[in-house]
């Protein structure tokens, strides 16, 4: 019987890093749902469509095929057959993803893709509305968070490693805005599910957070 672990929370809380480790150890498929919104953000940006132009974004969905494929166990996201995974991790695409994710038609469009994967596999799925909307029956739900400063510090280090010129102040400001927008949109906002366990990773090392999450997950799975 397939089961799901849902991990929601704001940007930079460590969701994807921790989810990947859990997926490997528990032999589950890791689904990074943010990549789906990012791929649409990337596509509309590349088409020259303004992020405020909701009508054009909605119109584009008809000609769009967004797919997740697994290559050597690693998730890749394809738009109309093109692997866009390497282009979607920039600060500009983070903001574009957040903007398109507030459009109800975009969320509706991606709903089936997400539920379909979970119907056919046991998954660790991370995002903003997995425990509340996408997989309300997930066996384990975790709301993973950390202080804005500690999340921005992590994201800044990741971007620096990639040679991105963004400053810490920019990363922090973008993150605070994105979290505000993601939490205040009308459709499926970022919020803790009533039955989710709250985990705050501020000031923890990755190893500490992983160990804590693993203990929570194993306990929940045994219930
Ligand atoms: O997890 P991420 O930073 O890659 O997500 C990028 C944006 O996509 C995020 O700011 C909001 C949106 N998103 C969402 O609305 N719902 C999800 N399940 C995942 C991401």
What does this protein structure show overall?
- With 223 residues, this protein is α/β, with parallel strands linked by helices.
- Helix content is 51%, strand content 17%.
- The strands form 2 sheets. Strands 2-6-1-7-8 form a 5-stranded parallel β-sheet, with helices on both faces.
- The protein is globular.
- The protein starts with a strand and ends with a helix.
- It binds 2'-deoxycytidine-5'-monophosphate.
- 2'-deoxycytidine-5'-monophosphate (DC) is lined by residues 11, 33-34, 37-38, 94, 97-98, 101, 127-130, 178, 182.
Most strands sheet: 5 strands, parallel
Counted beta strands = 8
| Helix/strand/pairing category | alpha/beta
**Termini gap:** 16 Å
Bound molecules: 2'-deoxycytidine-5'-monophosphate
Oligomer: single chain
Question: Uncertain segments of ≥5 residues (pLDDT<50)?
Answer: none
- Which strands sit side by side, in order, in the main sheet? 2-6-1-7-8
Task: Name some characteristics of this structure.
single chain; 223 residues; alpha/beta; five-stranded parallel beta sheet; three-stranded antiparallel beta sheet; 9 helices; 17% strand; binds 2'-deoxycytidine-5'-monophosphate
Secondary structure elements and their pairing?
Layout: E1 4-8, H1 15-26, E2 29-32, H2 34-46, H3 54-60, E3 66-71, E4 74-79, E5 82-83, H4 91-101, H5 104-120, E6 123-127, H6 130-134, E7 140-145, H7 148-161, H8 168-184, E8 197-200, H9 206-222
Parallel strand pairs: 1-6, 1-7, 2-6, 7-8
Antiparallel strand pairs: 3-4, 4-5
Helix pairs in contact: 1-9, 2-4, 4-8, 7-8
Bound molecules: 2'-deoxycytidine-5'-monophosphate.
Residues 11, 33-34, 37-38, 94, 97-98, 101, 127-130, 178, 182 line the site of 2'-deoxycytidine-5'-monophosphate.
